[in-house]
Design a protein that fits this description.
Elements: H1 2-23, E1 26-32, H2 37-52, E2 56-62, H3 65-77, E3 84-88, H4 92-96, H5 105-110, H6 120-124, E4 127-128, E5 131-132, E6 135-136, E7 138-141, E8 143-147, H7 148-153, H8 165-174, E9 177-178, E10 194-196, H9 207-217, H10 235-250, H11 262-267, E11 273-276, H12 281-286, E12 292-295, E13 306-309, E14 311-314, H13 321-336, E15 347-348, H14 351-357, H15 364-369, E16 373-374, H16 382-385, H17 393-402, H18 408-425
Parallel strand pairs: 1-2, 1-3, 13-16
Antiparallel strand pairs: 3-14, 4-5, 6-14, 7-13, 7-15, 8-11, 8-12, 9-10
Length: about 425
Protein backbone atom coordinates (compact mmCIF):
# COMPACT_ATOMS: atom_id res chain seq x y z
CA UNK A 1 0.00 0.00 0.00
CA UNK A 2 2.79 2.39 0.93
CA UNK A 3 4.57 1.52 -2.31
CA UNK A 4 1.42 2.28 -4.32
CA UNK A 5 0.95 5.59 -2.50
CA UNK A 6 4.58 6.48 -3.15
CA UNK A 7 4.27 5.75 -6.85
CA UNK A 8 1.08 7.81 -7.07
CA UNK A 9 2.72 10.68 -5.24
CA UNK A 10 5.72 10.56 -7.59
CA UNK A 11 3.45 10.52 -10.65
CA UNK A 12 1.49 13.47 -9.26
CA UNK A 13 4.67 15.46 -8.72
CA UNK A 14 5.85 14.66 -12.23
CA UNK A 15 2.52 15.75 -13.68
CA UNK A 16 2.59 18.97 -11.67
CA UNK A 17 6.13 19.58 -12.86
CA UNK A 18 5.07 19.03 -16.45
CA UNK A 19 2.18 21.48 -16.04
CA UNK A 20 4.49 24.08 -14.50
CA UNK A 21 6.98 23.59 -17.32
CA UNK A 22 4.20 23.88 -19.89
CA UNK A 23 3.00 27.09 -18.25
CA UNK A 24 6.38 28.85 -18.65
CA UNK A 25 6.03 31.63 -21.23
CA UNK A 26 8.17 31.69 -24.35
CA UNK A 27 10.91 34.25 -23.83
CA UNK A 28 11.53 36.57 -26.81
CA UNK A 29 14.01 39.40 -27.30
CA UNK A 30 13.16 42.47 -29.36
CA UNK A 31 15.83 45.00 -30.33
CA UNK A 32 15.27 48.43 -31.85
CA UNK A 33 16.99 51.79 -32.23
CA UNK A 34 14.17 53.91 -30.79
CA UNK A 35 16.19 55.69 -28.10
CA UNK A 36 14.03 58.82 -27.75
CA UNK A 37 10.43 59.28 -26.63
CA UNK A 38 9.41 56.96 -29.46
CA UNK A 39 11.10 54.16 -27.53
CA UNK A 40 8.72 54.77 -24.63
CA UNK A 41 5.75 54.29 -26.96
CA UNK A 42 7.16 51.02 -28.31
CA UNK A 43 7.88 49.82 -24.79
CA UNK A 44 4.27 50.51 -23.82
CA UNK A 45 3.07 48.43 -26.79
CA UNK A 46 5.36 45.58 -25.77
CA UNK A 47 4.08 45.80 -22.19
CA UNK A 48 0.49 45.68 -23.46
CA UNK A 49 1.23 42.55 -25.48
CA UNK A 50 2.96 40.89 -22.53
CA UNK A 51 -0.02 41.61 -20.26
CA UNK A 52 -2.53 40.19 -22.73
CA UNK A 53 -0.50 37.18 -23.89
CA UNK A 54 0.70 35.31 -20.78
CA UNK A 55 2.19 32.52 -22.89
CA UNK A 56 4.85 34.91 -24.23
CA UNK A 57 7.17 37.42 -22.60
CA UNK A 58 9.06 39.92 -24.74
CA UNK A 59 12.12 41.77 -23.44
CA UNK A 60 12.54 45.03 -25.33
CA UNK A 61 16.01 46.60 -25.68
CA UNK A 62 16.93 49.89 -27.33
CA UNK A 63 20.23 51.46 -28.38
CA UNK A 64 21.46 53.72 -31.16
CA UNK A 65 21.08 52.16 -34.60
CA UNK A 66 24.76 51.86 -35.52
CA UNK A 67 25.85 50.01 -32.34
CA UNK A 68 22.60 48.03 -32.49
CA UNK A 69 23.51 46.60 -35.89
CA UNK A 70 27.08 45.92 -34.76
CA UNK A 71 25.71 43.96 -31.80
CA UNK A 72 23.29 42.12 -34.09
CA UNK A 73 26.11 41.00 -36.39
CA UNK A 74 28.15 39.80 -33.43
CA UNK A 75 25.20 37.96 -31.86
CA UNK A 76 24.14 36.38 -35.14
CA UNK A 77 27.69 35.13 -35.73
CA UNK A 78 27.51 33.04 -32.54
CA UNK A 79 23.94 31.85 -33.18
CA UNK A 80 22.23 34.09 -30.65
CA UNK A 81 20.41 36.86 -32.55
CA UNK A 82 17.38 38.71 -31.18
CA UNK A 83 14.03 37.14 -32.02
CA UNK A 84 12.67 40.40 -33.45
CA UNK A 85 14.77 43.19 -34.91
CA UNK A 86 13.61 46.66 -35.89
CA UNK A 87 15.43 48.52 -38.65
CA UNK A 88 14.84 50.87 -41.57
CA UNK A 89 13.79 49.74 -45.02
CA UNK A 90 17.17 50.71 -46.55
CA UNK A 91 18.88 48.52 -43.91
CA UNK A 92 17.21 45.34 -45.15
CA UNK A 93 19.55 44.56 -48.11
CA UNK A 94 22.73 44.43 -46.04
CA UNK A 95 21.37 41.77 -43.70
CA UNK A 96 19.28 39.88 -46.25
CA UNK A 97 22.37 39.58 -48.47
CA UNK A 98 24.10 37.82 -45.56
CA UNK A 99 21.15 35.43 -45.08
CA UNK A 100 20.53 36.73 -41.59
CA UNK A 101 16.83 37.50 -42.04
CA UNK A 102 13.88 35.13 -42.38
CA UNK A 103 11.87 35.52 -45.62
CA UNK A 104 8.38 36.62 -44.56
CA UNK A 105 6.36 36.82 -47.77
CA UNK A 106 4.16 33.82 -46.95
CA UNK A 107 3.75 34.90 -43.33
CA UNK A 108 2.64 38.38 -44.37
CA UNK A 109 0.18 37.12 -47.00
CA UNK A 110 -1.20 34.44 -44.64
CA UNK A 111 -1.84 37.20 -42.10
CA UNK A 112 -4.12 38.82 -44.67
CA UNK A 113 -1.83 41.74 -45.52
CA UNK A 114 -1.51 42.98 -49.11
CA UNK A 115 0.41 45.79 -50.79
CA UNK A 116 -2.73 47.89 -51.25
CA UNK A 117 -3.19 48.11 -47.48
CA UNK A 118 0.12 49.95 -46.96
CA UNK A 119 1.86 53.11 -48.11
CA UNK A 120 3.74 52.17 -51.28
CA UNK A 121 7.14 53.45 -50.14
CA UNK A 122 6.86 51.51 -46.88
CA UNK A 123 5.79 48.26 -48.58
CA UNK A 124 8.52 48.49 -51.21
CA UNK A 125 11.10 48.99 -48.49
CA UNK A 126 10.56 45.47 -47.15
CA UNK A 127 11.93 43.67 -50.23
CA UNK A 128 15.39 42.67 -51.40
CA UNK A 129 15.93 40.93 -54.74
CA UNK A 130 12.19 40.29 -55.00
CA UNK A 131 11.90 38.60 -51.60
CA UNK A 132 10.00 40.18 -48.72
CA UNK A 133 12.02 40.14 -45.49
CA UNK A 134 10.10 42.52 -43.24
CA UNK A 135 6.76 43.88 -42.09
CA UNK A 136 6.31 47.60 -42.89
CA UNK A 137 5.72 49.53 -39.67
CA UNK A 138 5.84 53.24 -40.52
CA UNK A 139 7.07 56.13 -42.60
CA UNK A 140 8.98 59.09 -41.22
CA UNK A 141 10.48 62.12 -42.88
CA UNK A 142 11.80 65.58 -42.08
CA UNK A 143 9.53 68.56 -41.55
CA UNK A 144 9.81 71.99 -39.94
CA UNK A 145 8.73 72.38 -36.31
CA UNK A 146 7.80 75.96 -35.39
CA UNK A 147 7.16 77.83 -32.15
CA UNK A 148 3.70 79.41 -32.41
CA UNK A 149 4.41 81.99 -29.71
CA UNK A 150 7.58 83.26 -31.39
CA UNK A 151 5.83 83.36 -34.76
CA UNK A 152 3.03 85.44 -33.26
CA UNK A 153 5.49 87.87 -31.66
CA UNK A 154 7.21 88.29 -35.02
CA UNK A 155 3.89 88.87 -36.78
CA UNK A 156 4.37 85.80 -39.00
CA UNK A 157 1.48 83.64 -40.15
CA UNK A 158 2.70 80.02 -40.10
CA UNK A 159 2.64 78.23 -43.46
CA UNK A 160 0.16 75.43 -43.94
CA UNK A 161 1.96 73.82 -46.87
CA UNK A 162 5.14 73.99 -48.92
CA UNK A 163 6.87 77.38 -49.26
CA UNK A 164 9.89 78.53 -51.27
CA UNK A 165 13.43 78.72 -49.96
CA UNK A 166 13.30 82.52 -50.09
CA UNK A 167 10.07 82.64 -48.11
CA UNK A 168 11.62 80.35 -45.52
CA UNK A 169 14.77 82.47 -45.32
CA UNK A 170 12.72 85.66 -44.90
CA UNK A 171 10.92 84.08 -41.94
CA UNK A 172 14.19 82.86 -40.41
CA UNK A 173 15.71 86.34 -40.68
CA UNK A 174 12.68 87.92 -39.03
CA UNK A 175 12.85 85.34 -36.23
CA UNK A 176 16.59 85.86 -35.57
CA UNK A 177 17.30 88.53 -32.95
CA UNK A 178 20.53 89.83 -31.39
CA UNK A 179 20.85 91.29 -27.88
CA UNK A 180 19.84 94.73 -29.17
CA UNK A 181 16.69 93.44 -30.87
CA UNK A 182 18.15 93.67 -34.37
CA UNK A 183 17.70 91.16 -37.19
CA UNK A 184 20.40 89.94 -39.61
CA UNK A 185 19.23 92.36 -42.32
CA UNK A 186 19.33 95.37 -39.98
CA UNK A 187 22.30 97.79 -39.84
CA UNK A 188 24.42 97.11 -36.76
CA UNK A 189 23.23 93.51 -36.30
CA UNK A 190 25.67 91.67 -34.00
CA UNK A 191 26.18 88.03 -35.12
CA UNK A 192 28.29 87.34 -32.04
CA UNK A 193 25.49 88.13 -29.62
CA UNK A 194 22.37 86.40 -30.93
CA UNK A 195 19.73 85.65 -28.31
CA UNK A 196 17.21 83.95 -30.59
CA UNK A 197 17.86 82.06 -33.81
CA UNK A 198 15.32 81.58 -36.55
CA UNK A 199 16.24 78.02 -37.41
CA UNK A 200 17.92 75.03 -35.78
CA UNK A 201 20.07 72.78 -37.96
CA UNK A 202 21.72 69.46 -37.17
CA UNK A 203 25.33 69.86 -38.26
CA UNK A 204 27.30 67.55 -35.97
CA UNK A 205 25.80 64.24 -37.09
CA UNK A 206 24.64 62.54 -40.27
CA UNK A 207 21.47 64.63 -40.44
CA UNK A 208 23.45 67.37 -42.18
CA UNK A 209 23.99 64.92 -45.04
CA UNK A 210 20.30 63.99 -45.08
CA UNK A 211 19.32 67.66 -45.33
CA UNK A 212 21.73 68.01 -48.26
CA UNK A 213 20.44 64.77 -49.83
CA UNK A 214 16.86 66.05 -49.93
CA UNK A 215 18.00 69.32 -51.56
CA UNK A 216 19.87 67.29 -54.16
CA UNK A 217 16.62 65.40 -54.80
CA UNK A 218 14.79 68.71 -55.15
CA UNK A 219 17.00 69.31 -58.18
CA UNK A 220 16.04 65.94 -59.64
CA UNK A 221 19.16 63.98 -58.77
CA UNK A 222 20.00 60.91 -56.73
CA UNK A 223 23.30 60.25 -54.96
CA UNK A 224 24.44 57.05 -56.71
CA UNK A 225 24.23 55.68 -60.25
CA UNK A 226 21.44 53.29 -61.27
CA UNK A 227 23.59 50.28 -60.42
CA UNK A 228 24.36 51.73 -56.95
CA UNK A 229 28.06 51.15 -57.62
CA UNK A 230 29.37 54.72 -57.77
CA UNK A 231 28.58 58.26 -56.66
CA UNK A 232 26.87 59.97 -59.58
CA UNK A 233 25.38 63.47 -59.44
CA UNK A 234 26.32 66.83 -61.00
CA UNK A 235 28.81 68.63 -58.79
CA UNK A 236 27.10 71.96 -59.39
CA UNK A 237 23.83 70.53 -58.03
CA UNK A 238 25.59 69.21 -54.95
CA UNK A 239 27.35 72.55 -54.51
CA UNK A 240 24.07 74.48 -54.69
CA UNK A 241 22.51 72.25 -52.03
CA UNK A 242 25.42 72.53 -49.60
CA UNK A 243 25.74 76.27 -50.27
CA UNK A 244 22.15 76.93 -49.31
CA UNK A 245 22.61 75.12 -46.02
CA UNK A 246 26.01 76.67 -45.26
CA UNK A 247 24.71 80.18 -45.95
CA UNK A 248 22.00 79.76 -43.32
CA UNK A 249 24.78 79.53 -40.74
CA UNK A 250 27.65 81.71 -41.95
CA UNK A 251 26.08 84.23 -44.35
CA UNK A 252 22.64 84.93 -42.95
CA UNK A 253 23.35 83.92 -39.31
CA UNK A 254 19.87 82.48 -38.83
CA UNK A 255 21.19 79.16 -37.49
CA UNK A 256 23.83 78.63 -34.77
CA UNK A 257 27.26 77.20 -35.52
CA UNK A 258 27.71 73.62 -34.32
CA UNK A 259 24.65 73.41 -32.10
CA UNK A 260 25.08 70.43 -29.78
CA UNK A 261 21.39 69.96 -29.01
CA UNK A 262 19.11 71.54 -31.63
CA UNK A 263 16.02 69.84 -30.20
CA UNK A 264 16.54 71.31 -26.75
CA UNK A 265 17.25 74.73 -28.28
CA UNK A 266 13.84 74.55 -29.92
CA UNK A 267 12.05 73.26 -26.84
CA UNK A 268 13.32 76.15 -24.68
CA UNK A 269 12.68 78.82 -27.32
CA UNK A 270 16.28 79.54 -28.27
CA UNK A 271 15.39 78.72 -31.88
CA UNK A 272 12.03 79.40 -33.50
CA UNK A 273 12.13 76.58 -36.04
CA UNK A 274 13.75 73.15 -36.27
CA UNK A 275 14.09 70.61 -39.07
CA UNK A 276 13.67 67.14 -37.63
CA UNK A 277 11.66 63.94 -37.85
CA UNK A 278 8.34 63.00 -36.24
CA UNK A 279 10.08 61.05 -33.49
CA UNK A 280 10.49 64.39 -31.66
CA UNK A 281 6.72 64.94 -31.40
CA UNK A 282 6.44 63.32 -27.95
CA UNK A 283 9.17 65.66 -26.63
CA UNK A 284 7.30 68.69 -27.98
CA UNK A 285 4.06 67.46 -26.46
CA UNK A 286 5.76 67.00 -23.10
CA UNK A 287 7.39 70.46 -23.06
CA UNK A 288 5.36 72.60 -20.66
CA UNK A 289 4.18 75.86 -22.17
CA UNK A 290 5.37 75.12 -25.71
CA UNK A 291 2.82 75.88 -28.44
CA UNK A 292 4.07 74.30 -31.64
CA UNK A 293 3.14 73.05 -35.06
CA UNK A 294 4.75 71.67 -38.22
CA UNK A 295 4.89 72.40 -41.93
CA UNK A 296 6.89 70.83 -44.81
CA UNK A 297 10.54 71.71 -45.39
CA UNK A 298 11.01 74.53 -47.90
CA UNK A 299 11.06 73.81 -51.59
CA UNK A 300 14.40 75.44 -52.34
CA UNK A 301 14.77 74.11 -55.88
CA UNK A 302 12.64 72.90 -58.80
CA UNK A 303 10.59 70.15 -57.19
CA UNK A 304 9.24 69.02 -53.85
CA UNK A 305 11.35 66.35 -52.11
CA UNK A 306 12.16 65.47 -48.52
CA UNK A 307 14.42 62.85 -47.02
CA UNK A 308 12.54 60.07 -45.34
CA UNK A 309 12.69 56.45 -44.37
CA UNK A 310 10.50 53.85 -42.74
CA UNK A 311 10.84 51.44 -39.85
CA UNK A 312 10.31 47.77 -40.57
CA UNK A 313 10.19 44.69 -38.36
CA UNK A 314 12.27 41.62 -39.18
CA UNK A 315 12.73 38.16 -37.73
CA UNK A 316 16.36 37.04 -37.74
CA UNK A 317 17.11 33.47 -38.80
CA UNK A 318 17.13 30.93 -35.98
CA UNK A 319 16.36 27.24 -35.41
CA UNK A 320 13.75 27.46 -32.63
CA UNK A 321 10.47 27.16 -34.54
CA UNK A 322 8.36 27.93 -31.47
CA UNK A 323 10.19 31.24 -31.01
CA UNK A 324 9.87 32.08 -34.69
CA UNK A 325 6.11 31.46 -34.55
CA UNK A 326 5.75 33.52 -31.38
CA UNK A 327 7.77 36.34 -32.93
CA UNK A 328 5.59 36.29 -36.06
CA UNK A 329 2.43 36.43 -33.92
CA UNK A 330 3.71 39.47 -32.03
CA UNK A 331 4.74 41.37 -35.15
CA UNK A 332 1.37 40.70 -36.80
CA UNK A 333 -0.36 42.00 -33.66
CA UNK A 334 1.88 45.08 -33.63
CA UNK A 335 1.13 45.96 -37.26
CA UNK A 336 -2.62 45.52 -36.70
CA UNK A 337 -2.37 47.81 -33.65
CA UNK A 338 0.03 50.30 -35.22
CA UNK A 339 -2.42 53.19 -34.88
CA UNK A 340 -1.06 53.36 -31.32
CA UNK A 341 2.46 53.66 -32.77
CA UNK A 342 1.31 56.99 -34.25
CA UNK A 343 1.67 58.38 -30.71
CA UNK A 344 5.44 58.08 -31.25
CA UNK A 345 5.15 60.65 -34.02
CA UNK A 346 5.95 58.15 -36.76
CA UNK A 347 3.34 57.78 -39.51
CA UNK A 348 1.90 54.23 -39.58
CA UNK A 349 2.46 52.39 -42.86
CA UNK A 350 -0.86 50.54 -42.58
CA UNK A 351 -3.48 52.73 -44.25
CA UNK A 352 -6.25 52.22 -41.70
CA UNK A 353 -3.82 52.92 -38.85
CA UNK A 354 -2.49 56.02 -40.60
CA UNK A 355 -5.94 57.58 -40.60
CA UNK A 356 -5.63 57.99 -36.84
CA UNK A 357 -2.53 60.16 -37.31
CA UNK A 358 -4.63 62.78 -39.10
CA UNK A 359 -6.53 63.39 -35.88
CA UNK A 360 -3.38 64.03 -33.84
CA UNK A 361 -1.87 67.52 -33.39
CA UNK A 362 1.39 68.52 -35.04
CA UNK A 363 1.30 65.95 -37.84
CA UNK A 364 0.39 68.32 -40.70
CA UNK A 365 3.93 68.90 -41.92
CA UNK A 366 4.70 65.22 -42.07
CA UNK A 367 1.45 64.13 -43.67
CA UNK A 368 1.80 66.86 -46.32
CA UNK A 369 5.36 65.70 -46.99
CA UNK A 370 4.72 61.97 -47.22
CA UNK A 371 4.04 61.83 -51.00
CA UNK A 372 7.41 63.47 -51.69
CA UNK A 373 9.58 61.26 -49.49
CA UNK A 374 12.92 60.11 -50.95
CA UNK A 375 14.81 57.32 -49.22
CA UNK A 376 18.51 56.54 -49.31
CA UNK A 377 19.64 53.99 -51.91
CA UNK A 378 18.96 50.39 -50.91
CA UNK A 379 22.37 48.71 -51.01
CA UNK A 380 23.92 45.77 -49.11
CA UNK A 381 26.69 47.93 -47.62
CA UNK A 382 24.27 50.71 -46.64
CA UNK A 383 25.45 50.70 -43.01
CA UNK A 384 29.00 51.61 -44.04
CA UNK A 385 28.17 54.01 -46.87
CA UNK A 386 25.64 55.96 -44.81
CA UNK A 387 27.16 55.37 -41.39
CA UNK A 388 26.31 57.78 -38.59
CA UNK A 389 29.67 57.13 -36.89
CA UNK A 390 31.86 60.18 -36.23
CA UNK A 391 34.49 59.00 -38.75
CA UNK A 392 31.95 58.38 -41.51
CA UNK A 393 32.72 60.37 -44.69
CA UNK A 394 29.22 61.84 -44.78
CA UNK A 395 29.48 62.99 -41.15
CA UNK A 396 32.97 64.45 -41.55
CA UNK A 397 31.94 66.26 -44.74
CA UNK A 398 28.86 67.71 -43.07
CA UNK A 399 30.92 69.01 -40.16
CA UNK A 400 33.59 70.47 -42.44
CA UNK A 401 30.98 72.41 -44.40
CA UNK A 402 28.44 73.29 -41.71
CA UNK A 403 30.68 73.76 -38.66
CA UNK A 404 34.19 74.51 -39.94
CA UNK A 405 32.99 76.65 -42.89
CA UNK A 406 35.36 74.96 -45.34
CA UNK A 407 35.20 75.40 -49.10
CA UNK A 408 32.44 73.13 -50.27
CA UNK A 409 33.74 71.74 -53.56
CA UNK A 410 36.95 70.06 -52.30
CA UNK A 411 35.10 68.63 -49.28
CA UNK A 412 32.35 67.28 -51.50
CA UNK A 413 34.88 65.72 -53.90
CA UNK A 414 36.65 64.09 -50.94
CA UNK A 415 33.34 62.71 -49.65
CA UNK A 416 32.50 61.31 -53.08
CA UNK A 417 35.89 59.65 -53.37
CA UNK A 418 35.59 58.07 -49.93
CA UNK A 419 32.14 56.71 -50.72
CA UNK A 420 33.36 55.34 -54.06
CA UNK A 421 36.12 53.47 -52.23
CA UNK A 422 33.59 51.91 -49.87
CA UNK A 423 31.33 50.94 -52.77
CA UNK A 424 34.25 49.39 -54.67
CA UNK A 425 34.86 46.99 -51.79
CA UNK A 426 31.33 45.66 -52.09
CA UNK A 427 29.56 43.91 -49.20
Amino acid sequence: MKLKLGVLTLLSLLMIGMVVMAAQPIQLTFWGGWTGPDGDVMRALVDEYNSTHPDVHITFTTMQWTPLFTKFMTSAAVGNPPDILGMHGPDVPQFAALNLLTPLGNVISNAGFTATQFATAAWDGTFYNGIQYAFPLDLHMNAIYYNKTLFEKAGITPPTGWISGQQFLDMAIKLTIDKNGKHPNDPGFDPNNIVQYGFGLYSLNWHAFLQWYELLAQQGYGFLNKQNTKVDYPLDAGLKAWQWLQDLVFKYHVSPVGATNPLNDFLIGKTAMLEDGPWEIPACEAQKGLEWGTFPIPQVFERKAVWGSGHVLTIPVQKDKAKVQAAEDFVIWLIKNSSKWALSGNIPALNVAREYAYSLPGRTGFLESAPYEVMLPRIPNEAEVFSAASVSPIVVAGQDIMVRDKDILPVMKWMNDQIDQILSRGQ
